[in-house]
Design brief:
Elements: H1 3-17, H2 45-53, H3 57-67
Helix pairs in contact: 1-3, 2-3
Length: 82
């Protein structure tokens, strides 16, 4: 399994553990940022879930970050302005 596949799986686990009421198999839609200073990957999952769940995207993003499983793939996660 590739690092991207592992990362998607970690996102799905975090979303499930955050008890947001979202589908467990939702695609985090990982993207490469245009600016390398913004990290290796980005996701708009919090914005997409906010529309689906009617919740604040920043709160969703924080819940996902707080629930993210310990792993050897991610060094740091940041929540950009939403």
């Amino acid at each position: 399994m590739s690092d991207v596949d592992n990362l998607k799986k970690l996102f799905q686990e975090a979303i499930a553990m955050a008890n947001l009421g979202a589908e467990a198999d939702i695609d985090p839609a990982l993207e490469r940022p245009k600016d390398d200073a913004n990290g290796d990957f980005a996701s708009t999952i919090a914005l997409r879930l906010s529309k689906q769940l009617g919740k604040n995207p920043r709160e969703i993003a924080q819940a996902i970050v707080d629930s993210f499983p310990t792993n050897s793939i991610i060094n740091k996660m940041l929540i950009n302005k939403l």
